[in-house]
Amino acid sequence: MAQIPLSSQPSRSRIILFSLVAATIIWLFNELNKDGYTLRVQYPINLTYNDSLYIPITPLPKSVSATLTGNGWMLLRKSLSFTVSPVQYPILNPLATQTLNPAALTAIMHEQVKDVRISNVMLDVNRLDFEERMIKTTVLRVDSAGLQLSPRFVVSSFINLRPTTVTFDGPTSLVSDISDTILVRVPAQKIRGNYDEELPIRYPQSPLLKASTDRVFVSFEVAELFGNIPPASPPPTEEKTTPTPKPKSDGKKSKKK
Question: pTM for the complete prediction?
Answer without folding.
Answer: 0.67
